[in-house]
Amino acid sequence: MTDLLSTTTHAAGAEPPSVPSFAVISGEQVKKALEGSEKQLVELVEATYRLHGAGDSVNPPSYFLRFPDRPTARIIALPASIGGSVHVDGLKWISSFPENVDAGLPRASAVLILNDHDTGYPFACLESSIISATRTAASAALAADWLSRNRPRPRRVGFFGTGLIARYIHTFLARTGWTFDAIGVHDVSADSTEGFCGYLRHTGAAEPVTVHDSAESLIRSSDLVVFATIAGRPHVTAPGWFGHNPVVLHVSLRDLAPEVLLTAANFVDDVEHCLKADTSPHLVEQRTGNRDFLNGTLNDVMLGRAAPPQDQPVIFSPFGLGVLDLAVGKFVYDQVARAGQLRLIDDFFHDLRRYG
């Protein structure tokens, strides 16, 4: 387990804080710093959830910037602060423009700003679409592990939505010890499906891959179902499709109708964050007027305060916490710094004398 939970203290008589240098870390550097560290990153995400659950973090509600002339698009600000050994503040600024996909561009783009704990000065700007995908995939792999510990381990995985997030989740599952008897895929885009199957072939995945022509077929044939779509409202409405009680990683948050959640055991990453912005769990709360349908958080499961049942579908709906981006972003920064490859902008801060 990472030492993220350890605390950081400043020695008495330490030098007063100074203005930090400012670094820009590119997507290429981010990818290189993260590649091959999947197990370590899942441990980092687990430790971050525990730290957040213990109250050593600040994670305000995300802010959604929406546009009347572009109703499908949004840009989200996720401010956060985390203690422990990470001891950093910051902000992820991530856009989601679904129409990018038609132009051959990824839907999401993002930057992450890291702020110095003592002075508040930003000390790094990192390309963050890779960081965001990484923390999402690490969270999904962690949830798949914990939510299946008291039941037979899933042997058939199904990916509903076959874009970048699905690819990252498969990578994290494969590199943290998961093997399957079969992989199923389903997407409304034939090009996306073909691309994802090509990725699976390229990685040398040994499992047979089946392309399902319907959502029902995919779900009924999978013990572990991964939703990684761009759906803006529920489109899976039949609880009976989940009658075999799979573990469901509801990463895209808005695929499942309230009827499905009301027949399942429901776990989230953070209750207040997840039950807003018309996510599927938020729609259940609006319909019922309460939160009784929630069984707990993933941290509750890790602490033994909640246990997933074996006789119901188990659904994990993670909103995605800014503290996870900070933890992964600081991991990247430290890796790049240790390699001596920080690209510093020495004159980024200017006019630092209070009276000139």
Automatic annotation (TrEMBL):
The gene is sbnB. It holds the Pfam family OCD_Mu_crystall. InterPro entries: NAD(P)-bd_dom_sf, ODC_Mu_crystall, ODC_N, SbnB. Transmembrane segments: none annotated. SUPFAM superfamilies: NAD(P)-binding Rossmann-fold domains. This is 2,3-diaminopropionate biosynthesis protein SbnB.
